[in-house]
Write a structure and sequence with these properties.
Largest sheet: 7 strands, mixed
Low-confidence stretches: 57-61
Mean pLDDT: 88
Oligomer: single chain
Number of domains: 2
Strand order of the largest sheet: 3-2-1-4-5-7-6
Number of helices: 7
Helix content: 40-55%
Radius of gyration: 17 Å
CATH class of the largest domain: Alpha Beta
Structural class: alpha/beta
Distance between the termini: 59 Å
Strand content: 15-25%
Length: 217
């Protein structure tokens, strides 16, 4: 192991401890979130041994980043979420965002993820936590999905896509979503939306979160 990789491992461990401390309030109010966090920790340990041989063979694997519970708790008052809300996660990964809102707000959620391993993991966790009646997981590309009705909020990890892909995404979902939440970068082509932004801790470090609300005339 090189010096740089040792430094990264040390820094990442300290940052994970920092995020855990920030999340304590969420664990106290919703103890199930602590179980969910432990489940993700165990999965990361197992996946390291499962996927590390693939990385050594230079097989491409998707990166995964998400919001800690602390940051979700910070932005939630701006999203006006209720049990009647419908949330859409475009690239839901391991399902952390939707599981949080399903557990804490009892709302309906739809997660779209093209990577089969993340899809199966999300599905399994939602069943373990008895949330499968509220959350629908779809194993497909989100450009091929069109909501059957209006979604209140859509989460997008903007760092994962080119500007052209983001423009295509916005064009596809513009008429079906009232609020977009972008992680890491602003979204293009949202002239009819008001925007607020906050710099908050994410799984990869501090980053900007952009919240776009549709303007109604």
């Amino acid at each position: 192991m090189t010096l740089s990789s040792l430094f990264y491992t040390f820094w990442h461990s300290l940052y994970r401890i920092f995020l855990t401390i920030l999340n304590i309030r969420s664990y106290l109010f919703h103890p199930t979130l602590l179980f969910l966090e432990l489940a993700y920790f165990c999965e990361e340990l197992l996946s390291f041994f499962i996927f590390n041989p693939l990385r050594s063979k230079k097989i491409s694997l998707p990166t995964y980043g998400t919001l800690p519970f602390f940051s979700m708790n910070k932005i939630s008052p701006l999203l006006d979420i209720s049990k009647d809300s419908t949330l859409l996660d475009l690239g839901s990964g391991k399902g952390k965002i939707l599981l949080y809102y399903s557990l804490c707000y009892k709302c309906r959620c739809i997660g779209i993820e093209s990577f089969s391993y993340f899809y199966r993991l999300s599905n399994m966790l939602s069943r373990l936590l008895f949330q499968h009646s509220r959350i629908t997981w779809l194993n497909q590309d989100f450009f091929s999905y069109t909501p059957s009705s209006t979604c209140d909020i859509a989460f997008v990890s903007a760092l994962d896509h080119t500007e052209h892909a983001l423009r295509t995404l916005i064009h596809h979902y513009h008429d079906h979503v009232s609020t977009f939440v972008s992680l890491g970068a602003p979204l293009p082509s949202l002239d009819h939306f008001s925007v607020v932004s906050y710099k908050l801790p994410c799984s990869w470090g501090f980053s900007w979160i952009y919240i776009y609300h549709k303007k109604y005339v």
